[in-house]
Amino acid sequence: MLDIGYSLSRRFPDPPQTDYRRADVRALRHDLFSGDVYLADTKADRELSTAWGWVPVLDFAWALCDIVERIDQDPRGNRSHRRQYAELDFTESSDVMIFERRFGWVDIEADWMPGDEPPLTFGHSLLRREARDFLHDLIADLADLHDGLADNPVIWDLQARFPRM
């Protein structure tokens, strides 16, 4: 089972004068909602997480949904033996998460993991569903915390681009 989660940072609060209704893509993806994120294999009791406090959590959710689609370009889908790769880089460091799909499975690892630790592995359809659920749940949480965010057209477009499955 896959669990994707986050925590918002108290060290890097959003500017109090932010108009969330009018925030642009750059602000939403890079300047707001700092914290940490994790992907956990609850069955194996393993986790891949950040502990930096400055990861833009909305950008992470957005990028994760993009990556899941990017590694699904082979028309053969789950029957494809060709490896498909994508990287999620973190803007304030050189750290990356690496996603590799082969057949219907996606291996996820990060360059900060110990070298002898195996990657987390999930079915592609599960990763897609959970990534989209995480995005929508995160937006709902953030909209509860920040007046006007639910009325932002960028958020509407994002939710339409990656609907719940």
From TrEMBL:
It comes from the Bacteria. This is Uncharacterized protein.
